[in-house]
Amino acid sequence: MQDDLQQELIRELIVESREGLDQFDQDLLAIENQQNDEETLHRIFRAIHTLKGSSGCLGLKQIERLAHAGENLLSVLRDRLTPPDSATVAALFRFCDALRRMVADLETGAVSATADHAAIIADLNALHSVLLHGTPPEIHTEDGSSGLFEDEPGSSGFFLEPAPKPAQAPPETATSDGPVAIEAAIRVGVTQLDQLMDLVGELVLTRNQIIQHAATLRDPAILQSSQRLNTITSKLQESVMKTRMQPVGQAWSKFPRLVRDLSHELKKPVSLVMEGGDTEIDRTLLEAIKDPLTHILRNSIDHGIESTERRRAAHKPEAGHIRLRAFHDGGQVVIQLSDDGGGIDRERVLAKAIERGLIESANADRLADRDVFALIFAPGFSTAEAITTVSGRGVGMDVVKKNVEKIGGKVEVESVRGRSTTVRLKIPLTLAIIPALLVLTGGKRYAIAQASLLELVRLEQEQAAARIEFIRGCPVYRRRSQLLPLLYLHEQLGIAPPQLQPGDAIFLLIVEAEGCQFGVVVDAILDTEEIVVKPLGEELKAIPVYAGATIMGDGRVALILDVVGMARRAGLLQESRLQSAAAALDPAAATVAQEILLMSLGANRQAAVPLADVYRLEEISAERIEMAGNSEVVQYRSGILPLISVAAALGLPVPDSSPAGGKIRVVVYSHQGAQYGLVVERILDIVRADAPVSRCTNRPGIAGSSVVGNRVTDFLDVPALVSVSGVVSYHSAENWGLF
Amino acid sequence: MNQQICTFFLDDQMYGLRVLQIQEVLRVQEFTEVPLAPPAVLGLLNLRGSIVTALDLRQRLGLPPNPHLEAPLNVVAQTAKGLVSLRVDRIGEVVEINPEETETPPGTLGESLRNLLAGVVPLPTGLLLLIDLERTMELGSSNPKSGA
């Protein structure tokens, strides 16, 4: 046999046997969990039989011998249709691992200790003998064993025979074995796929040129064939692009086995459920997430799931439960692993982070849970009490983060103390094929992932004027009972606004990014299309509004919008501000109805403050206004009342400064001992209203917005308003002593 | 060991890149614009399935636009970070240089230009400025700030 042919065959054997052994593992697990059917044992037997045959042909004696011993045992198991006992299953797992090692050695050229293999072979033979005769063989030596099994010539002399012929001819012929290994797929090099993709790209461009020329030629025959060429090219392009996609479940195939082994090792029963394994991602991404996922899984079993005693004490089911899920969301592939373990101990993470100097202890209390949990990804961080062989050495989670970020992804952790931990990998669409919506703005095409779209709205111009309202210059749209901030795409991209003709409509894309819903206004909606996301060059990655670019059917490039990046850039996702604003209004404001004072700020704008904070309503003669420093004040009840024009502080047009009758209307607002006069155009009403604060707000002085009495109403955040307006407060005179 | 340098011109000044760095020269006029990108970015182009960022080398080196330019060419070069295309006025010949004769750019050139040059080679026909491709691709944080 020629050397390179031999090498080629060995390479094939390596790939083939890997697949076979993976299947072996899965089937064996099924047997262990009593989920096997008649076919399972046959399949296991065939896998090993095939491996034995191919390794024998190639002169790989070591593998052949081992496989042979396993085959003997398996053939008996298969013939008797008796499920193997746990000792046998364990031996078969060891057997499978040994084969795997040997196959790996073939690839690397290393040589493992043969002593281990001999021991495994001896074990298998012993089990075999017990099955056949009910007793273990008396002697384990090669000579002895050959004499013991007269009825099993195949098992005798297996250490020496160059090409053993199993006594029991397997019922399956070689041809029936073949399709098991290769029926689903053939292997193609990735570089070849890439080349294919490039060529298709060229073909698309050429196709477009031909179509253009054909149109000018007016030759029906050419026109027809160019159309045919068009269709075929599109289909070819689509199929070639799809060849790079692989189900994410491929990265998981080893997980059931991993969970089994770890749960045995750590004596924690753990069940694993995997969902969405058919979610497709690009193969390069698949490779990149394999290790991080494995690590998270190990961590989850080791640290997440509590010991059986603790679980019992916590009235939880004894067996831990891990759920692995993959799905498309917001234009990303999300892979999340949840366990029902003890959760992350916020205090312990904080203590450790302070000890390591990662955070200041003074800041610890103010950190949101999400930020605290993010600390576990810091290099060298581990809160594990004991270092186990499985994890806890503090390497890993930072590597997980690094690897995921390398492919442009993100890792998030959520945890409920005592209940659960969820680690979420958000893998960008980069390279993935996604259904996208193509929109037009400023004459240019942009793609937006359909996964982030909630709704499309078409508004005629007249309608648009009525349905789009403004809060301090910020456009909002009322979507049923919900107020959505609007972003004009042309503004976000810094390009010229569209020249709307009468009769033109505008289009709203209602999208969701990290839980925040908002509308994106575009000039036109073109089409939906499956696109392949390609990364932008380093030099453009810093622009947050793009998720990548794609090549359209006509060969031109279109940018893909990143909804999350856009929301963040527009300030819709700044959580800290959002929280402080909501807290400023009233911690319970979001849910509890309260009495509010409604006032008009002029220019059709309505605002509200909680009535509880209002001290008095006054009309003050404009002549009484004096200046103190840069601010306007009035003398009020033997003190000084600083005046704040709410409209001015919010950057709105200030109503006429010399109101009729020379009186200004002032809401005397009392907060933490200080009083301020809020100057408004009119006092409207006192109503009882829920304050379902619209969560997406980033305007200082406004805690949120809501619809009150059919009008969009800003809920003022007076302390913030005070600081925006730069007004100082005037406490009672004793404070002077402080100077 | 002599090096082969592909030369090109902006106005009458000769610039160069190592031949091995260059993948091809294209005459493309249409790019997909990238709003918010730094001004030196002309846009994106599809090069047989790869998306290439096209830079205007004049703009990148701080030269004023040349309104008389009729048929600019794009030099597509390979870098560790992927492909980049540089728009130049015209292409020159391939010249051989002795790398040992490369000198550091004079300090009078101004920092912005000097940072983008790998060196200056005195040739009989004039000075050849070698472009530092990696640095030329680093457009830094020059993208416009958030408008929010």
Description:
The complex is a heterodimer of chains A (about 750) and B (about 150). Chain A is α+β, with helices and mostly antiparallel strands and about 750 residues long. Chain A is about 40% helix and about 25% strand. Chain A is built from 22 helices and 29 strands. In chain A, the strands form six sheets. A six-stranded mixed sheet of chain A has the order 10-14-15-13-12-11. Chain A has a six-stranded mixed sheet with strand order 21-25-26-24-23-22. In chain A, a hairpin with a 2-residue loop joins strand 25 and strand 26 (about 675-680). The longest helix of chain A is centred in the first third of the chain and has 30 residues, at about 5-30. The N and C termini of chain A lie far apart (about 100 Å). Chain B is mainly beta and about 150 residues long. Chain B is about 10% helix and about 45% strand. Chain B contains three helices and ten strands; from the N terminus they run E-E-E-E-E-H-E-E-E-H-E-E-H. Chain B has helices spanning about 55-60, 110-115, 135, and strands at about 5-10, 15-20, 20-25, 40-45, 50-55, 75-80, 80-90, 90-95, 115-125, 125-130. Chain B has a five-stranded mixed sheet. The interface of A and B includes residues 197, 198 and 549 of A.
Task: For the structure shown, list the relevant keywords.
heterodimer, A: 739 residues, alpha+beta, six-stranded mixed sheet, 22 helices, 26% strand, B: 148 residues, mainly beta, five-stranded mixed sheet, 3 helices, 10 strands, 9% helix, disordered C terminus
Structural class of chain A: alpha+beta
> How large a portion of the residues of chain B is in β-strands, by DSSP E?
over 45%
User: What helical percentage do the residues of chain A reach?
Assistant: 25-40%
Q: What's the gyration radius of chain B in Å? A: 15 Å
Q: Care to count the β-strands of chain B?
A: 10
Uncertain segments of chain B: 141-148
Query: How many DSSP helices of chain A?
Result: 22
Largest sheet of chain B: 5 strands, mixed
**Bulk shape of chain A:** flat
- Identify the most extensive interface between protein chains: A-B, 36 and 34 residues
The whole-number mean of residue pLDDT values of chain A reads 75
